[in-house]
Design brief:
This protein is of the alpha+beta class. It is built from 19 helices and ten strands.
């Protein structure tokens, strides 16, 4: 008769194998793309092993420490040397425990794998791992955040929630003051922005995850705060210092203040605006710039970005300029973030786009509207690639991205440069990465990208113009 210890060792070994299958799925999804047949087969095997264990155990809860995984207070053996990297990956995503529940579906494991291979900052912009799972409808995989030797996660989240709430209330007070003809309390705006900067520089995960908050009734206020948060995160990756991040944050908080004079029936209209209503909507950048330009202690950059954030890089937006002068660096940042947040928010006339759909539209349909170098940098936060990027496909082909897919707004079209045998493709052969194969997976997916300034990338960009 098998002893209790032997049973525990057997179960522990089975859990180890299940977690190894998860890391195998992650590795193949990273190399081939999550929709590739090989990656899907790995996800399927992971699901099979997890499901068999769940029938036996009822639930699988694995503890995560920086250098090991733990089951029932005992470290899992790492017989093939892949569980330590998984523990490290989960730790960087603030996962202290991960639980798999009965009823686990293969699609849920696929969602988990895709989230775990997503670059950390990109995942933060989607609200973090837990939000990414819940927003995708995953109910049989739960994560618990724990950071050993650091401030309790619940306390950090409460602090972030308080700062976010104060920021929303600050925007609301500023708009109310403007509506009543009073001055904006610039000091309170600066104070809450500096609090956000401190939290972002210390540990921005909790605060960034709150930028995914989207409520209908407080859309304008939350949108302003979300634009400020994401703009500061983006600015930090571009090398802005603390003071510059705060200035950019204030500009983001106040960029839409002119909308206080746009009637709600226009802002919330479920159908197309009339020409007269568009004229009212188009007036808000100039109105906001005038208000901020005459407000005491409000940095001049706030008026500049309020005026410029809808002009667009190709000047297709509004207001129209009589001369083609350069837009401010901060205006270009806020233009990108403002559009991204708007597209991922439900509006009366359309449902929200998923982050990758929104980024796909910006990259492949509206690319000319945004400063190309900044758009390319922003897109890398969501693991997407701009027009002109030279990419390697899971078919061993190489190509250059030329535009958007006709089948899937989150995927591009690619002009092939090198075929599967390594031969140069001289004809203008375009492939749509939104096309699917007989199994339902994508026929081709991107597995690598060349840096834009490499010689081959420069040559490819010239050849495809």
């Amino acid at each position: 008769m098998e002893t209790t210890t032997a049973k525990q060792e057997t179960v522990s070994s089975q859990v180890e194998q299940a977690m190894i299958s998860l890391t195998t799925a992650m590795r193949n999804a990273t190399f081939y793309g999550i929709q590739h047949r090989v990656a899907k087969e790995c996800v399927g095997r992971c699901h099979e092993s997890m499901s068999a264990l769940l029938e036996q155990l009822g639930e699988i809860t694995v503890g995560v420490q920086p250098d090991q995984l733990v089951y029932q207070n005992m470290p899992l053996n790492d017989s093939v040397g892949c569980l330590v990297p998984l523990a490290e990956e989960l730790t960087t995503r603030d996962v202290g425990k991960i639980a798999f529940l009965p009823g686990l579906e293969q699609a849920e494991i696929e969602t988990l794998v895709e989230a775990l291979i997503t670059e950390e900052r990109s995942l933060e912009l989607q609200g973090g791992l837990r939000h990414a799972l819940s927003s995708a409808g995953v109910t049989h995989i739960l994560t618990e955040a724990t950071r050993p030797d650091e401030q309790d996660d619940d306390q950090r989240r409460k602090q972030a929630l308080q700062i976010h709430r104060e920021a929303v209330e600050t925007v609301q007070r500023a708009m109310s003051a403007v509506e009543q003809g009073d001055d904006i309390d610039a000091h309170s705006v600066r104070t809450v922005v500096e609090d956000m900067v401190e939290m972002l520089l210390d540990d921005g995960n909790a605060l960034v995850s709150l930028a995914a908050i989207k409520s209908y009734d407080e859309y304008l206020y939350e949108h302003s705060v979300n634009v400020a948060i994401v703009s500061m995160v983006f600015g930090h990756t571009l090398g802005l210092n603390r003071q510059q991040m705060a200035d950019l944050g204030m500009a983001g908080m106040l960029h839409d203040i002119g909308k206080v004079f746009v009637p709600l029936e226009i802002v919330r209209k479920p159908g197309p605006l009339t020409e007269e209503e568009w004229l009212v909507m188009h007036s808000h950048p100039l109105t906001g710039a005038r208000l901020l330009g005459t407000s005491k202690n409000v940095p001049e950059i706030c008026a500049v970005t309020a005026f410029e954030h809808h002009i667009r890089h190709d000047r297709s937006g509004y207001p129209k300029l009589s001369q083609n002068r350069a837009l401010h660096f901060y205006s270009n940042i806020i233009c990108i973030v403002d559009t991204y947040d708007s597209l991922t928010t439900a509006r009366p006339y359309r449902p929200p786009l998923r982050p990758e759909q929104a980024m796909g539209w910006m990259l492949y349909c509206g690319a000319n509207q945004f400063e190309p170098r900044l758009l390319a940098r922003f897109s890398t936060l969501l693991r997407m690639y701009p027009v002109g990027a030279v990419v390697q496909l899971d078919t061993a082909e190489w190509g250059v991205i030329t535009g958007g897919s006709q089948r899937d707004p989150a995927r591009p079209t690619v002009r092939l440069l090198v075929d599967q045998s390594g031969q140069t493709v001289r004809a203008n052969r375009q492939v749509d990465l939104g096309a699917r194969d007989q199994t339902g997976g994508y026929a081709r997916s991107i597995v690598g990208v060349l840096q834009p300034m490499t010689r081959i990338a420069q040559i490819a960009a010239i050849l495809t113009k």
